[in-house]
Amino acid sequence: MNQRKRIAVGMSGGVDSSLAAALLREEGHDVVGISMEIFDGSRSATPGQKHGCYGADEKEDIELAGAVCNRLGIPFHVIDLKEEYKEHVIDYFRREYLAGRTPNPCITCNREIKFGFLLEKARKAGIDFDLFATGHYARIVRAGARSFLARALDKSKDQSYFLYSLAREQLEETLFPLGGMTKPDVRKIAREKGLDTADRAESQDFMGGGDYEGLFEEGEIREGDIVDEAGQCLGQHNGIIRYTIGQRRGLGISAAKPLYVMDIDPEQNRLVVGEKISLLSAGLVASKVSLTGIKMYELPFRAKVKIRLNHEAAGSTLYPGGENRVKVMFDKLQNAVTPGQSAVFYLGDMVLGGGIIEKAIGSGDESGSR
Questions:
Q1: pTM for the full model?
Q2: pLDDT tens, position by position, 36-68
Q3: Domains of the chain, CATH where assigned
Q4: In whole angstroms, what is the distance from residue 11 CA to residue 78 CA?
């Protein structure tokens, strides 16, 4: 990118976005920093807790982002997105958990907030820019007039899983300056440039400390039965929002063999547990599918599919599932397919798209029994 551009950089107060802004500034671009204000002040910080994206330490993040922009000599703006974040991320997160699913709020935040309302409100506020850049570890491959999302060079930090639902129009106006770099190199270069955020710890959780129970109303977290696959009561759980598919620890029940959460039933407020073999699935059905590297009419199609961030992408065949759905059949049985999480489709390093896991297809049932 040789032509000078005006680029807005999403600043989080971390080393990645700080270096992204510094590199673009060095390239001669007209850079402006923008940060989101999303925390509504409803929770206080707990000493010693891990840093989170949503929490009382947001003020520190914004101050650091502003300090970096000041050091780089670029303008800095804070955009109030508290209402949008509550409606599109917090309320969605609550609904999904209460429905017995396990959502990924980062995917929703990227699509709706960072690459949506943030840019819309920044422009309405008179902040002019041609492109938007972030410190995400991902790449955008330009092929003629088309843009495709691809995995980062540093596979251990790759964040393409969180970005799969970005539309092609969004990708065309986006830059990921760190996509070809490793995390150690990012920190090294940031130190060399004297950035205050060079050695700052990364955010580990959606919420500070990983404790999101405060998002729920009194009475929404209720005790209920833990039953086996035959319906026999084995004990009590302390609220379905505290559990996810595949969970073994913290069930508070004893059995001759290890038992895992295999189903969450919100209507009866109960957990169904079984042996590990019951968690194996032949495939899944994904809904709300977003495809950028392939068209629905090109299915069936061979791809690798990730069913959670740290899952090793599994060889699969994608089939049309009707109503913006895709049926995924794995080459080998996969463990703990979890409704509410995202299934992301890859061809080599290129992201073909993905969708929200609606249900698992049991190892002996291609119709989708779980």
A1: 0.92
A2: 999 987 765 454 455 678 888 899 999 999 999
A3: 6-210 (3.40.50.620), 222-274 (2.30.30.280), 280-362 (2.40.30.10)
A4: 9
